[in-house]
Amino acid sequence: NKKILLVKRPKGLPAKDDFKMVEGTVPEPKTGEVLVRTLYLSVDPYMRGRMNDQKSYVPPYPLNEVITGGVIGEVIQSRASELDEGDLVIGNYGWQTMQTVDSAQLRKIDETIAPVTTALGILGMTGLTAYFGLLDIGRPKPGETVVVSGAAGAVGMTVGQIAKIKGCRVVGIAGSDRKIQYLLDELGFDAAINYKTTKELKKALAEACPEGVDIYFDNVGGEISDAVMRLLNPHARIPVCGQISLYNLEKADIGPRIQPLLLINKALMKGFIVSDYAARFDEGTNQLAEWLKQGKLKYEENIVEGFENTIDAFLGLFKGENLGKQLVKVAEP
Ligand code: NDP
Hints:
Layout: E1 2-6, E2 19-23, E3 33-42, H1 46-50, E4 65-66, E5 68-78, E6 88-94, E7 98-102, E8 106-108, H2 125-138, E9 145-149, H3 154-165, E10 169-174, H4 177-185, E11 191-194, H5 201-208, E12 213-217, H6 222-229, E13 232-240, H7 259-264, E14 268-271, H8 281-293, E15 301-305, H9 310-316, E16 325-329
Parallel strand pairs: 9-10, 9-12, 10-11, 12-13, 13-14, 15-16
Antiparallel strand pairs: 1-2, 1-4, 3-5, 3-7, 3-16, 5-6, 6-8
Helix pairs in contact: 2-3, 2-8
The structure holds NADPH dihydro-nicotinamide-adenine-dinucleotide phosphate.
């Protein structure tokens, strides 16, 4: 059994030696527990925040302990009445190849709906984030213009597609030509802008949004968001989902003051965390699954093979290596 520990608080972009892979034994399951073999694990941008020793909506990862996150596994020994050997389960537990978990922390995956990996993506945390952030805070109406940053990532590509389902004009911002092409050709975005190669982002955005911006779904923050804010329409809504461009900064980055723009446009800017919507997860998952079945929603997964490549997969998020949800395949189901 192998596991990955956080051994140092990263400064800036995490380095390989902030982590350590160690071998260990797995305790026998007690009553109510199961032994789980990890199949897939999720690497997510929010984990970077938990590597700092700072107050947030989730506590920091303790040093020298196993990193935890979304994991899919197979039950190989059960001492819990509701789970059997062979069940596929999802939960928030360790970056570890094998572990003993309290069954209350696990949910059985229904494999008949979609491939099992979707439980960590389109039918899991990132899909639900897109669904609730866009629909509950963004409240899209037909004909409105929606801009989404981080548009070719797990959350972003789902946001754009739901906005299309709701009859909006959708403009995506992403970091490579391959991603831009994908958004336009495969997902039917109305326009897409490569922020890494576009010299005047604000001008390009203004051209892509001739009628201004009604909803800005913010996944990245920083200068990209500053540019979008200039184009807000009256009564614009801004779900603040993530700020990935800031997660590795060592010093706070102070941008232009946007309050006047919010004020004159009577705009709503609201941060949210997907777990706020836990009571409505079934609604979200059912609707996402329905759209998948109807072919109205697509998803992509970027799957890195091998537990030993977990850190690289995580760091790849900050380099834009992923199209869609980044996962690590640890073992064959
Ligand atoms: P993604 O699949 O979008 O992966 C991250 C992407 O961010 C990369 O592929 C990269 O794409 C882009 N990126 C990396 N660095 C920068 C940068 N400096 N500037 C602009 N873009 C950058 O991840 P998720 O879909 O899982 O998450 C997207 C955002 O949503 C994150 O900010 C995350 O923290 C947040 N989030 C929030 C949740 C909530 O409950 N509020 C829940 C889940 C996620 P590119 O090639 O375009 O640069």
